[in-house]
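Supplementary Text 2. Reproducibility record for the structural model of the 297-residue chain.

All settings were left at their defaults, and a single model was retained for analysis rather than an ensemble. We include the record here because the model underlies the residue-level annotations in Supplementary Table 4.
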Amino acid sequence: MKRTFLLFILTACVYGNLAAQVSWYDRYLECINDSSLDYSRQVIEQWERAEPESADVYAAWFNYYLKMSMDEVIQITSVPPQDGQQALEMEGSEGESAYMYSKQVYNDSLIAIAFEKIDKAISLYPNRLDLPFGKIHMLFTLEDYEKAMPAIHQVIERSHLNGNQWTWTLGKPVEDGKEAFKSSMQDYFRRFYDAELENEAMQITEWMLQYYPDDVVFRSNKASLLAISGNTDEALPLFLSIHDDNPDDYIVTSNIAFIYKQKEDKENALKYYRILSECGDEEMEELARKAISELTE
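Retained model, structure tokens:
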């Protein structure tokens, strides 16, 4: 069966002559989507001989072995695909539905080699942000959340050590490295939360707050997780402190008002719903007006 190729590309760090590096990188890009894995391997092997310590070479091998490991199988189940993937729906003799669609599968041995390559690259070039991000992306694809957690933690620890002075393709500095790093950590938080892995989402939040205690986004994450778990006594002061620092965050204001309403603290609930009723967001203002009407009946 025809292999499905990886869509994202890990890139490189500058070593030796920049023009030569770009030339090898360009050759690699030209062959990466070629149907011949043999040709890709030839290019990478030549590149490796020319620049054996290049981060690009490690990243290229990572992608190569990922591609080698990937294949598709056809499966028939009683459950339709959950990701919007197209499927052929069939009806059985007793009227029951069945769904036929393709599924990506991976060869464990080849995946292991791919991770060996990227782990080596990360150890040699710890400030290359694209390398761990590529690894974490693949771990999420495999739904290997147990291994994704230490990989994420490693990046957070490195951000503290390097002051978010990250590099990316061809060793170019990441513009606003701190924001790029934080944005990705928030994305990982959201992916764990969407997968209903609240403990992992909270752990990322705690790791981030260890080094970025004033970060409003991760303070809000923590407060929200606490509130969702029913721990409103701990969540409320966190939301209030965030509101003091960022009074225009109407989501935080809404959460404060709702918690006070739950606690039957009518005075404070009305206080924050009245603030919310003037936030400038039509939907939130309407929500606030309805809550005020209920509380003042």
